[in-house]
Specification:
By secondary structure, the chain is mostly helical. Among the domains are: about 1-10 and about 30-70, no CATH class; about 270-395 and about 410-420 and about 425-445, Glycosyltransferase (Alpha/alpha barrel). The protein is built from 23 helices and 18 strands. The relative contact order is 0.10. The structure holds 1-deoxymannojirimycin.
């Protein structure tokens, strides 16, 4: 039935073929051709065949639709590779996506691509909200509003690009001259985007502050999930750590209420044990930084008070300070289980005490911390300038020798070598010599590349054995290297800074939440299919600042927009996975589970003191907002002045 209605190519053809009539003359022609072909010599046949094949190839290639088709296919393949690079971090280079204008796949699809991270700012702004932790309870209304603003910005950006490439002859010419140079409009747009990002940081700060104010006012740390607080030193740690951040962000109201608390409530005359390093970098550093920004003597008085109360820590047989001091009783002691102090702790209090001496004209502070540096400089047990993690307060010798890391317990030793040199006007050569030697030591002993994508990373060394383990804390290093290069140290330090910056970014981008774990392990074996592994116990994120800090330095010195894009992406993910609706942000247990990142119920003071400050400075277009030729940041992001040449 069906076939009769389509008789033109079914019924008729089959019938003719079956009867044999239709092909009679054709058959005869074929037979005669065959006879002629057989009469030809083998050489003649080969020549004919060769010519026919050649003609066929030329014909195919000269047919535009076909070539376009093949070109299209290979372009598609390339795109696919780039896409899988984005998903799995595969291929080299580029490891990172180009800033394409592309709409994100729907949420369900995103879920199918769990590792998909990394699109820069414009692309990110199109990312759909959703699947945040059920506990964190995002501020949906605010997010919705932000998203609309973002999309409007993207549309405007799109318009700029399109206009430039379309009818405007002059702009077209400009593009021909230097296709990479941003147009004035694009520059204005970047400023516009940056202003919006800065506002997002201020919003994040206000949200964090609200939680602190509502549930932890005057206490050390907010516990945002349980709407309570925790004490460490009982000194309003978050408030003091955040003072200069509020000043820098222009949050006057918040600053004034915090200042009032400092004036009326902050007392160091308390029978409490504090950790020398932590209270120096957060409290002494915070007060000194705020004093310099505001000129308000209140903060200097408080700085003098805490500084002098910390001094008993240096009363040890070796002059290497104890880890803890009772600031009420004036008695210091090591931890109960050891007489060792941590190397990073005793060598990362110098910027603050040196500055305290300068502003008080009292040399005792600088002398005490200078003695520590002088001793550490002379000690045996270093490996190419790299220091072990512990030092004994009785004999002043390194202990637990043979273990080297740029992470916990050693990190800021290297940072403060460079920064003391900068703080003192680059005159104290010992510091920069030790720093340069240490960086050579890192390059020689600790630097490796991961597989399959060749991410440069800094591993650890244990008795000659290399371990491809890297703490998030190590991500201070790109920023420090860049700062050194900015101050005249080898340009190759900047190259290394850029490579490590990319690695630190990948530590975020390759996680399902887009947030870095505390510790990663890099694959070094050929044939591995991912560069970064995370052990179960290392999956937490404490809202740490190091990567954002380095992004800030890298952007300041290179003006490469990608560093802002990466920062924006990280900020978005902090908002998505760590923001608590009732106020505050929480550290999380599992950066690999976007459905339940598992809140730890703690907002560390450095989130306000450092992380949000560096975010803000990253997006600020004002190079004088903490000019890096006038200020040096302590390891808790408190700006201290670089000493004038006359001093
Ligand atoms: C901060 O207190 C400081 O940045 C310190 O140098 C390292 N640990 C935290 C942030 O991670």
């Amino acid at each position: 039935m069906h076939s009769t209605s389509r008789q033109d190519y079914i019924s008729v053809n089959f019938a003719d073929k079956g009867s044999g009539k239709y092909n009679n003359s054709k058959q005869w022609r074929r037979q005669s051709c065959l006879r002629k072909w057989k009469q030809l010599s083998r050489l003649q046949r080969s020549l004919i065949l060769f010519t026919l094949v050649l003609l066929l190839i030329c014909g195919v290639l000269s047919y535009p639709a076909v070539t376009e088709h093949f070109k299209g296919l290979s372009a598609g393949d390339e795109e696919k590779d780039t896409e899988s690079n984005r998903v799995l971090g595969r291929g080299s280079p580029p490891l990172l996506p180009e800033p394409v204008k592309r709409v994100q796949p729907p949420l369900q699809e995103q879920k199918r691509l769990p590792n998909k991270r990394g699109p820069p700012i414009l692309q990110n702004r199109l990312q759909k909200k959703g699947n945040a932790s059920d506990v964190q309870v995002e501020n949906k209304a605010a997010d919705g509003r932000k998203e609309n603003e973002d999309e409007a910005l993207i549309r405007r950006h799109g318009a700029v690009i399109d206009t430039d490439h379309a009818s405007d002859g002059t702009k077209g010419e400009e593009h021909k001259k230097d296709p990479k140079a941003p147009t004035d409009q694009e520059l204005r747009l970047h400023t516009d985007l940056a202003a919006n990002c800065s506002e997002a940081v201020r919003e994040a700060f206000r949200h964090a502050w609200k939680g602190y104010k509502d549930f932890a006012w005057g206490h050390d740390e907010l516990r945002p999930i349980s709407k309570s607080y925790s004490e460490w030193f009982s000194l309003g740690l978050t408030l003091v750590d955040a003072l200069d951040t509020m000043w820098i962000l222009g949050l006057k109201e918040e600053f004034e209420e915090a200042k009032a608390w400092v004036a009326t409530e902050l007392s160091f005359n308390k029978n409490i044990d504090v950790n020398l390093f932590e209270s120096t970098i957060r409290i002494l550093g915070g007060l000194l930084g705020t004093y310099h920004l505001t000129g308000d003597a209140l903060f200097l008085d408080k700085a003098k008070d805490i500084g002098s109360r910390l001094m008993p820590a240096f009363n040890t047989p070796s002059k290497i300070p104890y880890s803890d001091v009772n600031i009420g009783k004036g008695i210091a002691h090591p931890p109960r289980w050891t007489s060792d102090s941590t190397v990073a702790e005793v060598t990362s209090i110098q910027l603050e005490f040196r500055e305290l001496s300068r502003v008080t004209q009292d040399p005792q502070y600088q002398a005490a911390v200078g003695e520590v540096m002088a001793q550490v400089h002379k000690l045996d047990g270093k490996l190419d300038g790299l220091v072990p993690m512990f030092i004994n307060t009785n004999n002043g010798q390194f202990t637990h020798q043979g273990i080297y890391t740029l992470g916990a317990r050693a990190d800021s030793y290297y940072e403060y070598l460079l920064k003391q040199w900068i703080q003192g006007g680059k005159k104290e050569n010992q510091f920069v010599e030790d720093y340069l030697q240490a960086i050579e030591g890192v390059k020689k002993n600790m630097l490796q590349k991961s597989s399959p994508n060749g991410l440069t990373f800094v591993g650890e060394l244990s008795h000659g054995q290399f371990s491809p383990k890297m703490d998030h804390l190590v991500c201070f290093l790109p920023g420090t290297l860049a700062l050194g290069a900015h101050n005249g140290l080898p340009a190759e330090h900047m190259d290394l800074a850029k490579q490590l910056m990319e690695t630190c970014y990948q530590m975020y981008a390759q996680m399902e939440t887009g947030l870095s774990p505390e510790i990663v392990h890099f694959n070094m074996h050929q044939g591995s299919n991912r560069d970064i592994e995370v052990k179960l116990a290392d999956r937490h994120n404490l809202l740490r600042p190091e990567t954002v800090e380095s992004l800030f330095y890298l952007y300041r010195f290179t003006k490469d927009q990608k560093y802002r894009d990466w920062g924006w992406e990280i900020l978005k993910n902090f908002n998505k996975y760590t923001k608590v609706s009732s106020g505050g942000y929480t550290s999380i247990n599992n950066v690999r589970d976007p459905d339940y990142p598992s809140p730890r119920d703690k907002m560390e003071s450095f989130f306000l003191g450092e992380t949000l400050k560096y975010f803000y400075l990253l997006f600020s277009d004002d190079p004088n907002l903490i000019n890096l030729d006038q200020y040096v940041f302590n390891t808790e992001a408190h700006p201290l002045p670089i000493w004038p040449a006359t001093e």
